[in-house]
């Protein structure tokens, strides 16, 4: 399996400017609402909701915001109807791109995403056209510095915790699991004193392609533009 190629935008940085943090919280709020709608508002019994709330707390999202988002999902507070969406596209250099989103208007969001991709030299493709190039996996990120482990110790702990595969990028270890084992692997790591930087289901490319530096820059601009769209939650691609 190739390495995890995931657009890690400003949303993962605690020190983001207020405007960016507001966008981060808005996107997290949507995730929480959809998770609560799908699996109930009690994080004890809704593992997906629990992991999103953990991520929100790690980024200092106010508890009131979290609670309000949960209540929107359970119907205790009236709100717009949110739906998950998934788009597939080719970006500059033939890079395969999966875009996960949440929207209150599928037609509007489809039009916006299609325009962004076209404006940056890419094209939308039919559902399923590139998804086969990726695998659905649980993805846990761990920083050896923050958990006071060297790389070898962290790798061993990941394997002992039930990881299917591991991959290093920028001194961060990606720990892969089967989707249904994500929470148990995360908990096993926690018992070993390893707190995850993030833990979520995601798409991992089976193979990565090589593109030119110019094409990489064009992809970067595409991902930045997509990330600015309110409906876009996550972006995955098959190049490093």
Q: Can you walk me through this structure?
A:
With 240 residues, the protein is α+β, with helices and mostly antiparallel strands. It has three domains: 17-74, Integrase, N-terminal zinc-binding domain (Arc Repressor Mutant, subunit A); 83-130 and 207-237, Alpha-Beta Plaits; 133-205, YebC, transcriptional regulation domain (Alpha-Beta Plaits), CATH 3.30.70. 40% of the residues lie in helices and 22% in strands. It has seven helices and eight strands. A four-stranded antiparallel β-sheet has the order 3-1-2-8. α1 (18-39) runs antiparallel to α2 (47-58) and α1 packs parallel to α3. The longest helix has 22 residues, at 18-39.
Widest β-sheet, arrangement of strands: 3-1-2-8
Order of helices and strands, N to C?
HHHEEHEEHEEHEHE
Q: Write down the Rg.
A: 18 Å
Instruction: Provide the CATH top-level class of the largest domain.
Output: Alpha Beta
Given the structure, what is the number of helices?
7
Shape: globular
Structural class: alpha+beta
User: In the CATH scheme, what's the topology name of the largest domain?
Assistant: Alpha-Beta Plaits
Residue stretches low in confidence (pLDDT < 50, at least 5 long) are 9-15
The termini sit apart by 13 Å
